[in-house]
C-alpha cells in the first residue's frame, strides 16, 4: 500500500477503527527551488509541491478526543482531548514519551483550529495517517502532516471560511502556529504555504510577510531538465536548537540594524559596516543576497530561461555553507560531484545540518549524475544516498 492509494488507506482505517472514514485528505511535501532561511526573515521563497506527501483518513467522534494512528508508527495510537486547555491535553503535551511526539503535529493543529474556528468549533476525530515522504529528508513531512490534518478537520466540522483560496493562506498561518506553540519548532511560513497553495507545473513565488503569492511556471521536462532530490540520509532534528539559534541571530541583527526584519535591509554594505559581530554580518549577507536570488530566479523562469537556474542554485549553496553555516558534508559532496558529472548546479535544501540537496541537470545526464554522487559517497564509506526526481505537483486536497 502507498500513501497515494486512498481506497487502501480507507480500508485500513475501517479495520483500525471498526467504522468507515468520512473522507481521505492529502497534503504534499515540498522542494524549495531557492530562498532558504528567508521565510522567517519576512523575505521571499520559491517552493513547489511534490507528488509525495502525507494522507489522512478521518472521521468525526463525539467524545471530545483526537485519536491519531499512523501506518508508519509501531504503537497503537495516541489519544488526547481536542480541547487544548483540558488537563489531560496539557499533561500529554508536557510529558509525552519520545515515541509519541510525532502526534504533536496533528494534535497541535487541532488545538489551534479549535481556538480559531469559534463559529464552527472543531470536535473530536479519529485519524489514520500514511506517508510516502521520507522523514528527515528536509522535504517538509511535518508541514504536510499538519496541512492534511487541517483540511480534514475543517471539512469535517464545516470551517468553510478556511477552505477558500484566501482561507488557505490563513490556514497556513494556523498550521505554522501549531508548529511554533505545540512542537517547539520556530519555522517560517513557507512549508505550510507550499503544501496548501501550490499548483502542478509551477513554483510558488511567496512573499512571507504579506502571504501573497503568484504561480511561476516551472517547465522542467519541456526544457529537457530534471531536478533531482538527493536524500543524503544524514538527518538532524531541527528542534535540537541549531535552527532556532540561526533565527535568533537574524532577529538580533535586525534589532541592531533598526529594521523589522532582515528583508528590510536595502543597503547591504552599510548594514555590514554597522555590525561589529562577524557572525551576524555573515547571517545578514546570506539573507539579503538570498532574497535577491529568489527574485532573480523567478524572473528567469518567467523569461523561459529555466536552464540558467543552475548557477543561481550553486550560489545559494555556497552562501548557505559559508555565510549561514548550515550545510553539511553530504550536501557539499553531492553538489560538487553532481556538477563534475555535468549538472548545471545544485544546493542544500531545508533548514540545514542534514537532509537533502537538489541538483538541476540535463535529463539525459541524470543517471550519470546520480551515479557520480553515489560513487563519491561510497568512497567515503557513507550510507548510500537516495534519489527522487522532483515533479511540481498540486497542493493539499481531498482525494476520497
Comma- or semicolon-separated keywords:
400 residues, alpha+beta, 13 strands, four-stranded antiparallel β-sheet, six-stranded mixed β-sheet
Quick recap of the structure?
The protein is an alpha+beta fold and about 400 residues long. The chain has twelve helices and 13 strands.
List strands and helices in order, with pairings.
Elements: H1 6-17, E1 23-32, E2 44-45, E3 47-61, E4 65-70, E5 78-81, H2 87-95, H3 104-116, E6 124-131, H4 141-156, H5 165-183, H6 190-197, E7 202-207, E8 213-217, E9 225-234, H7 242-257, H8 268-274, H9 278-302, H10 309-322, H11 329-340, E10 345-349, E11 355-362, H12 366-379, E12 386-389, E13 397-398
Parallel strand pairs: 4-6
Antiparallel strand pairs: 1-3, 1-13, 2-7, 3-6, 4-5, 7-8, 9-11, 9-12, 10-11
Helix pairs in contact: 3-4, 3-5, 4-5, 4-6, 5-6, 7-9, 8-9, 9-10, 11-12
Please give a structural write-up:
The protein has 400 residues and is of the alpha+beta class. It is 41% helix and 21% strand. The protein contains 12 helices and 13 strands. It has helices spanning 6-17, 87-95, 104-116, 141-156, 165-183, 190-197, 242-257, 268-274, 278-302, 309-322, 329-340, 366-379, and strands spanning 23-32, 44-45, 47-61, 65-70, 78-81, 124-131, 202-207, 213-217, 225-234, 345-349, 355-362, 386-389, 397-398. The strands form 3 sheets. The protein has a 6-stranded mixed beta sheet with strand order 5-4-6-3-1-13, sandwiched between helices. A 4-stranded antiparallel beta sheet has the order 10-11-9-12. The chain has a 3-stranded antiparallel beta sheet with strand order 2-7-8, sandwiched between helices. α9 runs antiparallel to α10 (309-322) and α11 packs across α12 (366-379). The two termini are 16 Å apart. The relative contact order is 0.17. The model has no long low-confidence stretch (mean pLDDT 93).
Amino acid at each position: 500500500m502507498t500513501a497515494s492509494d486512498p481506497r487502501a488507506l480507507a480500508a485500513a482505517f475501517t479495520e483500525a477503527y471498526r467504522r468507515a472514514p468520512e473522507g481521505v485528505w492529502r497534503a504534499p511535501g515540498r522542494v524549495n527551488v531557492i530562498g532558504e532561511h528567508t521565510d522567517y526573515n519576512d523575505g521571499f521563497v520559491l517552493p513547489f509541491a511534490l507528488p509525495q506527501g502525507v494522507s489522512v483518513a478521518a472521521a468525526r467522534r463525539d467524545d471530545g478526543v483526537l485519536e491519531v494512528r499512523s501506518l508508519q508508527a509501531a504503537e497503537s495510537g495516541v489519544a488526547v482531548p481536542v480541547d487544548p486547555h483540558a488537563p489531560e491535553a496539557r499533561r500529554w503535551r508536557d510529558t509525552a514519551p519520545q515515541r509519541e511526539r510525532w502526534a504533536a503535529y496533528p494534535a497541535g493543529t487541532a488545538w489551534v483550529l479549535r481556538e480559531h474556528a469559534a463559529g464552527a468549533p472543531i470536535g473530536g476525530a479519529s485519524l489514520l495517517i500514511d506517508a510516502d515522504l521520507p522523514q528527515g529528508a528536509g522535504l517538509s513531512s511535518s508541514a504536510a502532516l499538519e496541512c492534511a490534518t487541517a483540511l480534514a478537520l475543517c471539512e469535517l466540522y464545516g470551517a468553510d471560511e478556511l477552505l477558500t483560496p484566501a482561507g488557505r493562506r490563513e490556514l497556513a498561518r494556523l498550521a505554522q502556529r501549531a508548529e511554533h506553540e505545540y512542537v517547539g519548532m520556530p519555522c517560517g511560513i513557507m512549508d505550510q504555504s507550499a503544501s496548501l497553495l501550490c499548483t502542478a507545473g509551477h513554483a510558488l513565488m511567496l512573499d512571507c510577510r504579506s502571504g501573497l503569492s503568484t504561480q511561476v511556471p516551472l517547465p522542467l521536462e519541456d526544457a529537457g531538465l530534471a531536478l533531482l532530490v538527493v536524500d543524503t540520509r544524514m538527518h538532524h532534528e531541527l528542534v535540537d536548537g541549531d535552527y532556532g539559534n540561526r533565527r535568533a541571530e537574524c532577529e538580533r541583527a535586525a534589532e541592531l540594524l533598526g529594521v523589522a526584519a532582515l528583508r528590510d535591509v536595502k543597503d547591504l554594505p552599510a548594514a555590514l559596516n554597522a555590525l561589529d559581530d562577524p557572525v551576524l554580518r555573515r547571517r545578514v549577507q546570506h539573507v539579503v543576497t538570498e532574497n535577491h536570488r529568489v527574485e532573480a530566479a523567478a524572473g528567469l523562469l518567467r523569461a523561459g530561461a529555466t536552464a540558467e537556474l543552475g548557477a543561481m542554485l550553486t550560489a545559494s549553496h555556497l552562501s548557505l555553507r559559508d555565510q549561514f553555516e548550515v550545510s553539511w558534508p553530504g550536501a557539499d559532496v553531492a553538489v560538487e560531484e553532481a556538477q563534475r558529472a555535468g549538472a548545471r548546479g545544485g544546493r542544500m535544501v531545508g533548514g540545514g545540518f542534514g537532509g537533502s540537496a537538489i541538483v538541476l541537470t540535463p535529463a539525459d545526464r541524470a543517471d550519470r549524475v546520480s551515479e557520480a554522487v553515489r560513487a563519491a559517497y561510497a568512497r567515503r564509506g557513507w550510507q548510500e544516498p537516495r534519489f527522487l526526481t522532483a515533479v511540481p505537483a498540486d497542493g493539499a486536497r481531498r482525494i476520497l
